[in-house]
Specification:
Blueprint (H helix, E strand, L loop, with lengths): L6 H11 L3 H28 L6 H12 L4 E3 H8 L3 H14 L2 E5 L7 E5 L1 H19 L6 H17 L13
Length: 173
């Protein structure tokens, strides 16, 4: 259902009318980013749902597949994903139940719990990545130069919020 107007632009107008001009542009930007995140997640979920994955579980599988051994300590996964350890534990538990990951302990330090990719996990993450590349990442909704510029701008936001952002995005084009 369309309303025939942009609700974020309407909210911006309301901010101005209520005397919050100093915050109006920021409110519109933040609200726009949140809305775009919702729209992108809908696209991502439409690709991953038939494979029995969420984006969080996909990210775990993809990270594990990037590791030479296909395994990684749970604490390292959480650090790389920038999520709370309980979120990693929950995602890994679900992946274990699905047969995509198994939990192992290091021989030299039994306290370290590793998440290890199974053959089935490797297969599903490759299929999911192929689908995401074609259906979402290759055509995210902006022209290529806009994608690079937006990523740079979001990097500034991330850095200002405390993320470690070292270099601007470099494109191969």
């Amino acid at each position: 259902m369309t309303l025939g107007r942009d609700p974020i632009r309407e909210a911006h107008s309301q901010w101005l009318r209520h005397g919050w001009a100093d915050a109006a542009d920021g409110m519109a930007m933040v609200t726009s980013v949140v809305r775009v995140q919702q729209l992108l997640m809908e696209r991502i979920e439409a690709v991953l749902r038939p494979l029995g994955l969420t984006f969080a579980r996909y990210e775990v599988l993809r990270l594990l597949s990037f590791a030479r051994s296909g395994a990684m300590p749970m604490a390292r996964l959480g650090s790389l994903l920038q999520v709370h350890p309980t979120s990693v534990t929950s995602a890994v538990e679900r992946l274990v139940r699905q047969g995509y990951v198994e939990r192992l302990r290091r021989d030299n330090d039994r306290r370290v719990v590793l998440a290890s990719l199974t053959d089935a996990g490797r297969d599903v993450v490759e299929e999911a990545t192929g689908r995401l590349n074609v259906e979402v990442f290759e055509r995210p909704g902006l022209p290529a130069e806009g994608v690079v510029r937006l990523t740079e701008l979001l990097g500034v936001l991330r850095a200002n919020a405390g993320d470690e952002v070292v270099d601007p995005v470099v494109t191969s084009q």
